[in-house]
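ingest -> validate -> predict -> emit
validate: passed (alphabet ok, no gaps, 132 aa)
predict: started
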Amino acid sequence: MEQELWLNLPVKDLEKSRTFFTSLGFESTRDSPGMIGFIIGKVPVMMVEESQLEQYTQHKISDTSKGSELLISVSAPDKGYVDKITKKIIRAGGTVYSEPQEVQGWMYGMAMIDPDGHRWNIIYMDWEKMPK
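emit:
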């Protein structure tokens, strides 16, 4: 049996999320009442209105201003991509909390917060430089 993994993220404003992620270069793949889908790093990511996601989970949505439940990581093809998307994130109203930088001598990445408080990092990994 082949299975897929996708993420369902709560959002306060679908149109704001659509505008933000579209301006970063991600294409909307699915529109349904109360949700929008994107493919980000080969993974389907559904942006779901908070009230609808609470119905699905039968649980309250976490307050992302007070804590993180996960860090979503997306690979980058090269360092230039990290620098370019950082500028796009700032222009789109995202918050960069870690500027692009070298990490452990073999990675180059940055980290941001989307309009709903979800934390993401965009990272290029140079596998040739990874310590053995």
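The helical segments are 14-23, 50-57, 79-91.
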